[in-house]
Amino acid sequence: MTKHDEARRAFLVGAAVGAGAVATGAGLMADAEAQTHAQHRGNGAAPAHANGGGLGTFLNADDAATVAAFTERLWPGAPGKPGAREVGVSNYIDLALAGAYSDLQDFYRRGLAALDAHCQKTYQASFVRLSPARQDEVIAALEEGKATGFTWPTAQAFFNTLRTHTIEGMFADPAYGGNKDFAGWRQVGFPGAQPAFTPADMQSRQAFTRAPMVGLQAQAKAITRRT
User: Fold this and answer.
1) How many angstroms separate the Cα of 114 from the Cα of each of 3, 11, 151, 166?
2) What pTM, to 2 d.p., does this model score?
3) Where are the domains of the chain?
């Protein structure tokens, strides 16, 4: 992983922790609602499930590939540190767009179309076919508002939204479709739900590593068993 990638990782970790995305997942979709919506879309596509694969609930194959590649450059993988693609960030975004973020469907459609047009005009290739270095150039142009062909959303608005959703997909509870195997939480030392913390846990400044790490799905199963 390059120094540029390491700097991007450090920035996104700080942004996630500062926004409280790690602890709360505030503003995210309701998983059950999204799954029900996906199963009744009637478009012939197999529904995506939490941490699942296959064709998405909203994104088509080309758009899903673009989102996966884009988010991977925002949060690139490294040895022992899964990136956005492995953690399932694109699955999280796809499920969100079929649920609580359905008001952003046209935003994503137009933004992805403008992204493809910019890449074709500038490099004569789609975003997914560019080298990582070229992809980073495109992302930098979006962030700085210099990418051509964007009207609504603007290049910066599209970049900022995808960055925010990447952070959510990395650090929200796995029930929402990302943070597969709690990989995002493990990278920042967030413990998830725990029955109790020892005095030593409360005093420690080190990343929390004790198992088990518990998410919403496990809690829902426990409630179901009790009832």
Assistant:
1) 29, 26, 8, 19
2) 0.71
3) 3-226
